[in-house]
Known about the structure:
Number of helices: 10
Helix content: 40-55%
Strand content: 15-25%
Structural class: alpha+beta
Oligomer: single chain
Radius of gyration: 19 Å
Number of domains: 2
Amino acid sequence: MKVYWNTRENPEPYTVLPSRSCVFGVQVSGRIRWQKEEEVQVLEKAGLTGILTEHRKFTSTGNTRSLLIIASPYSLSSKLDFSLSEIKNRSIGLSDLFPASKVLSLLSDCEEEADSEGDGLAAWTRFWNSLPERKKTDRYIPEAERRIQEAKGDVSIRQLVSDLGISQSKLERDFKERIGLSPKEYASLVRFGEIFEHSEESENLTDLAYRSGYYDQAHFIREFRKFSGVSPKEWFRKKNGI
């Protein structure tokens, strides 16, 4: 897990793109809300956002400081007694998932660490270790994850299940349970993430598409728009301030 402080001094909207991780957030000052069309949700001070397959627009109040914890879906699933697919594209308060007393202790510990300029790791570790394991460890889901990541999303699901020695229906079912997505959806997210790994070294968008595993320019543009809401040209133009 990656644990770090994030501070936003100005109440400006910002976009979070889909990724293959889940994110815990604990606000020690300020609040955050997200908006999708006409729907607005004010996030709980301590919450969890499941794996995203669509971009999400957030706005924070001024001087918002949050402890963010980037967690792999598989490790998170061990602490939950339901399928991770239930929180796909959702943000939910930790008090809806875990005992209120543990969440209050986490908030208090994070506030103390913020006041003492701590890195937040001790507060998070105490909370995480206090949660019981809800699911047994298995081998083939992490192995399927690893293979999809190593292939940078360019993987045959049929070949994957053959290599793992399990049925496709079992992989689909268990992958959604422990990761929140189907293997095919997960592979698409991994490939999308490759775009940003190669964006600095690519000469143009055609080169970027090829480096990221998209062999069809139309597919690259279509998938980028699906995940980000805009075309790659629009995204990188805005990112570069053009």
